């Protein structure tokens, strides 16, 4: 075809192409116009983690993005250590954190959403031959290894503070499992989901989870945001609608849930 002899045709094609692109461009612009909620998360794979490109990923990240969009917001994610998340909720530097309910240190300056469909389980992981644990107090005067950057329930914190043996704090799960294998600790205190992820790369034969506690995640929202109550209500409403459309619980991607959810 001689394009010099058919300028009208090419003009129509160009206009049609722009019209096809227009909705996408408009959608991007509209998304950018949404009010922003700044949210914090800790590294807790596969529920929340940072991928190789530096982006927030994970089941709770994806769910929060969906619920926020349905509520008229977009989310700007920040990966922080847990203590900085607590401080940032207090100062209002972050608006929300998908985390544990009823944390005493947060109750004066936060409100909470209803529970979400993701539950976390706190375990004392041990090797075969180690006595079973059924209660926090059973850990008293045992050698423990903890994971740096994680916090634990108040009951466990009391046991740790009263323990005659100072717990070892490992930089990650792999280092903690090596400590367990070498006999330097009897129990590794961590959570089911990230431990299961770590076991995929570092199989620990005979490892078991003695469950200490379990609770659902909620959105913990800073009262420094003047719309804190409204945000909690909007996310609750969006979650109820999401549950109606997704009656089956969402399986966490890539996770074998034996340690994450089994009792």
From TrEMBL:
Identification of the protein by name: Polar amino acid transport system substrate-binding protein
Homology family: Belongs to the bacterial solute-binding protein 3 family.
InterPro entries membership: Solute-binding_3/MltF_N
Gene3D superfamilies in alphabetical order: Periplasmic binding protein-like II
Source organism (scientific name): Halopseudomonas aestusnigri
Signal sequence region: 1-29
Phylogenetic classification of the source organism: Bacteria, Pseudomonadati, Pseudomonadota, Gammaproteobacteria, Pseudomonadales
Record flagged with keyword Signal: yes
Residues of the Solute-binding protein family 3/N-terminal domain: 36-246
Sequence intervals crossing the membrane: none
Keywords: Signal
């Amino acid at each position: 075809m001689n394009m010099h002899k058919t300028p009208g045709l090419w003009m129509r094609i160009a206009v049609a192409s722009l019209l096809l692109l227009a909705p996408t461009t408009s959608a991007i612009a509209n998304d950018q116009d949404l009010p922003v909620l700044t949210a914090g998360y800790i590294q807790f794979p596969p529920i929340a983690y940072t991928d190789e490109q530096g982006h927030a990923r994970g089941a709770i990240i994806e769910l929060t993005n969906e619920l926020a969009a349905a509520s008229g917001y977009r989310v700007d994610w920040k990966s922080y250590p847990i203590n900085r998340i607590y401080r940032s909720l207090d100062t209002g530097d972050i608006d929300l954190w998908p985390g544990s309910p009823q944390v005493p240190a947060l109750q004066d300056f936060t409100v909470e959403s209803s529970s979400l469909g993701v539950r976390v389980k706190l375990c004392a992981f041990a090797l075969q031959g180690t006595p079973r644990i059924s209660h926090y107090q059973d850990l008293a005067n045992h050698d423990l290894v903890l994971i740096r950057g994680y916090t634990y329930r108040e009951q466990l914190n009391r046991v740790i503070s009263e323990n005659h043996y100072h717990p070892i704090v490992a930089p990650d799960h792999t280092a903690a499992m090596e400590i367990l294998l070498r006999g330097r600790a009897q129990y590794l205190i961590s959570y089911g989901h990230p431990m299961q992820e770590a076991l995929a790369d570092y199989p620990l034969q005979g490892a078991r989870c003695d469950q200490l506690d379990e609770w659902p995640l909620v959105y913990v929202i800073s009262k420094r945001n003047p719309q804190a109550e409204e945000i909690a209500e909007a996310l609750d409403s969006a979650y109820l609608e999401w549950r109606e459309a997704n009656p089956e619980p969402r399986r966490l991607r890539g996770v074998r849930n034996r340690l994450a959810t089994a009792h």
